[in-house]
């Protein structure tokens, strides 16, 4: 009886640990994940391309506002403030009732105050 109980506990524990383990590729969001990786590495042109690729396939996706925001951030980090401003305004216009629109407004204010200095 003890052997059966031990085996049942061992099997259940193994099942739990196996189900909790995730493979990295199972958490990938395709172009969006690629864009995040490029952004983190400072490769902003490739990040912009991948965020745009995500948006073209998922214009109303759960990550669309975030992707658009990070396109703007990537342009800003690359030194292209004109395109950064254009894309922050796009976030505000397309996703007005999101925290990403609030973040975009903050970034616009920062850009405007730094350009006046």
Structure description:
The chain has 117 residues and is mainly α. It has a single domain (25-116), classed as Alpha Horseshoe (Serine Threonine Protein Phosphatase 5, Tetratricopeptide repeat), CATH 1.25.40. Helix content is 77%, strand content 0%. Helix 4 (64-78) runs antiparallel to helix 5 (81-94) and helix 5 packs antiparallel against helix 6. The longest helix is centred in the first third of the chain and has 19 residues, at 2-20. It is globular.
Backbone CA Rg: 22 Å
What is the molecular shape? globular
Helix content: over 70%
CATH superfamily: Tetratricopeptide repeat domain
Q: Segments where pLDDT lies below 50 for 5+ residues?
A: 17-26
- Straight-line distance between termini: 80 Å
Instruction: Give the number of helices.
Output: 6
The CATH class name reads: Mainly Alpha
Structural class: mainly alpha
**Biggest sheet character:** none
Mean pLDDT: 85
Work out the count of structural domains: 1
The fraction of residues assigned to DSSP E strands is under 5%
In total, the number of strands is 0
Question: SSE string, helix = H, strand = E?
Answer: HHHHHH
CATH topology: Serine Threonine Protein Phosphatase 5, Tetratricopeptide repeat
Q: Which CATH architecture is right? A: Alpha Horseshoe
Element layout with pairings:
Blueprint: H1 2-20, H2 31-40, H3 44-57, H4 64-78, H5 81-94, H6 99-116
Helix pairs in contact: 2-3, 3-4, 4-5, 4-6, 5-6
Keywords:
Serine Threonine Protein Phosphatase 5, Tetratricopeptide repeat, single chain, 77% helix, mainly alpha
């Amino acid at each position: 009886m003890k052997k059966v109980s031990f085996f049942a506990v061992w099997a259940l524990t193994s099942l739990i640990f196996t189900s909790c383990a995730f493979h990295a590729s199972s958490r990938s969001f395709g172009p969006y994940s690629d864009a995040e990786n490029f952004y983190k590495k400072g490769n902003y042109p490739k990040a912009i391309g991948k965020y745009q690729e995500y948006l073209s396939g998922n214009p109303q996706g759960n990550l669309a506002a975030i992707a658009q925001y990070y396109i703007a951030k990537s342009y800003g980090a690359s030194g292209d403030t004109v395109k950064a401003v254009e894309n922050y305004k796009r976030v505000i216009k397309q996703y007005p009732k999101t925290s990403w629109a609030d973040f975009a407004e903050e970034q616009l204010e920062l850009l405007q105050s730094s350009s006046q200095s």
